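Input/output pair, single chain:
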Amino acid sequence: MTNRTISALIFTFLLTFEPFTSAIAFVQASEQDDPLLTIGDKTVDKDELIYLLSRGNKSESGTPGMSREEFDENLDLFINYKLKVREAEAKGLDHTEEFIREFESFRENIKAPFLIRNSLEEGELRKAYSRMQEIIRASHILLQFPPNATKEDSLIVLRMALKIEDEIKKGGNITELAVEYSDDPSAQVNKGDLGYFTALQMVQPFEDAAFSLQPGQVSSPVLTNFGYHIINVKDRQPNPGQVRVSHILVRIDETNANGEDLAKRKVADIYNEIQKENTVWEDIVKNYSEDPASSQKGGILPWFRVGSMIPEFEMAAFSLTELGEVSPPVRTKYGYHILRLEDKKPVESFESMEESIRSRILRDSRSTMIQSQVMAIQKSRYNFDEHEVNIAKLRGELNNIAEDEFAQTLSEKNLVSDQLFTLMGKSFTAQNLADFMAEEEITLKNKTGTFDAWYERFAAFELNKAEEADLEANNKEYQMLLKEYRDGILLFSLMNEEVWQKGLLDTVSQKAFYEKNIQNYQWKGRVNAYIVKILDMTQLDAARKLLQGNPLSAELISSFESSYESSNSLAYQTETGNIEYSEHPVLSKADMNMDYQELEANGHLHIVILGEKTNPGPKKFEETRGLIIRDYQEHLDKTLVESLRKKYPVNINPKAKEETFIALNQ
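Output:
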């Protein structure tokens, strides 16, 4: 069962609280007032009714509020709902393994939007999408660290990067400097030019620096996992979105001394051929393109964005403006290309890109950054106090030991009682960390050491628990949503046990209910009838010839329908069966004593052939079992509510009731 299903079920059980036309806002009470209801020995607060009635009722301001009659009706439905939840609790349905498993699954799903991490992720998503509205062209110089670099090595690299930055700002040519100094292997070919890119196509520190610069500006050294970068932004433009092109490829034979010239002449000849009238692009591609992956498909390539292809190819593709426009030959490392623009589309909406952006963010360094920010906020909010001296000691003693020796080493070195931190006034020790490691039953791949890796994981776990506890204690909307889902699961379980399954499976009780209420399952007068609606009046005579003067029979119906279905299937529309005629739109106008007649109804002429008539009388059990099951389930539900109102006395607080009514009409 999905979250959406449970939410829908609650409102189904409440007869959906028939939405009224007022704009209702959920009102949070600053202090808990007297309860709205007492059901048996349980109290129910007015905020719960306000919350449930507010869901889905967001009409325009200025519309009439809820009437007293509507409010009383909804209150009565709400009481029935709470009575059933109370009975489910009395039966212990909230302690079953199935309930606990299902509720915990829902809790995991519904808490996500309320967590600190969600708001930080949302901020990164919006920032990335905002940056995607632009493309940037930049050059860079990369200075890498030597293997196993020391702190002094890092400082030497930084000084070199600062020297190059200064030289560029004094007028030095970054292209020449990239060839001379850059450790980027591609610099010898592209001279540091990275072409155009947008958000999420570079590592985060590089992207942040590039998007902070205007054309012509040079960055200070930017540290990434690759080393230090000096970035020079050359251009910023609106993002053109995506293009789709087809292409012809002429490769260069590197083994032939004249390979370059031969390829250049061949592509020029192909380009000239394309300019001729009546030339078919697909034929040229098939005959001359040396790209085996696309040559048999008209040269068509997948959609791509800026930053997805090699720069020369990409710039040629995005420079095409008219569909069907063909580019001059373009040289890339693969050879010579001729491109044709097939289609283009703008940057997609945030909603359509949200999940793909989220996936990319969670796969790169931003995920680690978000986690660090989450923990920093949690530590500040929940009074996290780290015992720095003990942490340093434990790091020295435990970082280099194997995980499976952790608990034993703690004990041998008498470290189990060493305090790690306090959180919300509660102290956590090294023994708590060892217990956590045993419960996790996983092996961490880490570069920081055994203690550091597990301590970070343990602290994050406890901080998350503290945040969730804070949510449940202090966030009114989360409390209400959690209660809605909890009570919804209990309601479903009770109704399934007491109403739905009984009503569906107890055939003996179904038949007894049917016999007791047989007056509700009666046929009105019926007649075997064949009704032909004439849709094409030019075919009326043909229908008359086949139908008039013949008694109603299966053979007549089969003969008529086979005669027109193969030749003129749109000429007629037919209906047949043993039909109650008193309220039928056509048969209600018919003379029951005439076997053949033609009647006007709803703007169409109908040919009606009547057969045997059946007088009013009771329906057989099998004929109406579906309706009987529905009615019997409604009877069981009504009986259940009546019994629960006797079992759990309901007391309504008049003052809280009036406050609820006023709150719903504000």
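The CA atoms of residues 171 and 292 lie 47 Å apart. Residues 133-238 form a domain with the Chitinase A; domain 3 fold (CATH 3.10.50.40).
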